[in-house]
Amino acid sequence: MDVVCGVILDSSGRLLACRRPRGKVLAGRWEFPGGKVDPGETPEEALVRELREELAIEVEVGEALSPVKWSYPWAEVRLMPFHCRVIDGMPQALEHEELRWCDAGESRRLDWVPADLPVLAELGFPGFDG
């Protein structure tokens, strides 16, 4: 399954983390916002759509990071992360339990979904070895 996620930083370099809601797989864990790529969509198109649906923001999709292949008991995932810049709106928790802007220290204290750990490591956040 192809999945995209957006790495969104604010002007202070803090990272946007989203907490998965109750009733969903990996509920309560933190993740980068994003979702599945639908048939006929490019990853970039999927990311723009997902961030509009999940956070009510418009983004400019920037540089791709390294894809992550992850095996969960329920699915094989190919996560395609991209840097994103918010061009309109303020992130709102439409589909998440909570949103949090976190610095490197705070990000280490969050319980991240496993597939996002290599992305955090690539971003150079200390304490993540991917």
Q: How would you characterize the overall build of this protein?
A:
- 19% of the residues lie in helices and 37% in strands.
- The radius of gyration is 13 Å and the shape is globular.
- The protein starts with a strand and ends in an 8-residue tail after the last helix.
- The strands form two sheets. Strands 1, 4, 5, 6 and 7 form a five-stranded mixed beta sheet that branches. A three-stranded antiparallel beta sheet has the order 3-2-8.
- It has a single domain, classed as Nucleoside Triphosphate Pyrophosphohydrolase, CATH 3.90.79.
- It has 130 residues and is an alpha+beta fold.
CATH superfamily: Nucleoside Triphosphate Pyrophosphohydrolase
How many domain regions?
1
Largest sheet: number of strands, sense, barrel closure = 5 strands, mixed
Order of helices and strands: EEEEHEEEEHH
CATH architectural arrangement: Alpha-Beta Complex
Q: What number is the mean pLDDT?
A: 94
| Strand runs, count | 8
What overall geometry do the principal axes of the alpha carbons give?
A: globular
N-to-C CA distance: 20 Å
Structural class: alpha+beta
Segments where pLDDT lies below 50 for 5+ residues?
none
CATH topology: Nucleoside Triphosphate Pyrophosphohydrolase
Strand percentage lies at 35-45%
CATH class: Alpha Beta
Helix content: 10-25%
Determine Rg (CA atoms, Å).
13 Å
Number of helices: 3
